[in-house]
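Structure in, sequence out. Go:
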């Protein structure tokens, strides 16, 4: 039964997957997450008037740094040489949300989904941290992989 789980050995112990026989390919992953803010906080974010400073620039740098450090945070994740890590934001002022998209790219033997997931979530947590002085009930929601390509499993595109 444990042979059905790639991260468990024959005795059921956690292990890092051996990717030494896999082919190197260009791998891309994109993750989206939403941060929901009340109208007052959103107004301050848009006006760049929050007490802790410029939120989105700080969140962008935090997300990129997180992508680069993913293997230090996720125990069985392979350390990957990232070719690119990026964070973009779509501010929907009327809807009270910041849509974050994180993208990670590498040429490697395993995918970059974890790097994109960690990047998106750390960018969202940074927005929370930068806004918490004026709003405590910020909601981080709808985090999911929306695209991946490369490797044996090919391309995935969320609907």
């Amino acid at each position: 039964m444990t042979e059905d789980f790639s991260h468990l050995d024959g005795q059921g112990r956690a292990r890092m997957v051996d990717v030494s026989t896999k082919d190197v390919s260009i791998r891309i992953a994109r993750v989206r997450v939403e941060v929901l803010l009340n109208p007052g906080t959103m107004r301050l974010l848009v006006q760049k008037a929050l007490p802790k400073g410029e939120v989105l620039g700080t969140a962008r740098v935090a997300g990129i740094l997180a992508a680069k450090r993913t293997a230090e945070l996720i125990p069985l994740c392979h350390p990957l040489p990232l070719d690119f890590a990026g964070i973009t934001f779509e501010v929907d002022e009327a809807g009270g949300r910041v849509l974050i998209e994180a993208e990670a790219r590498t040429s490697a033997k395993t995918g970059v989904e974890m790097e994109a997931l960690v990047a998106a979530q750390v960018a969202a947590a940074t927005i929370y941290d930068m806004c918490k002085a004026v709003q405590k009930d910020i909601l981080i929601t709808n985090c999911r992989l929306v695209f991946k390509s490369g490797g044996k499993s090919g391309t995935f595109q969320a609907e």
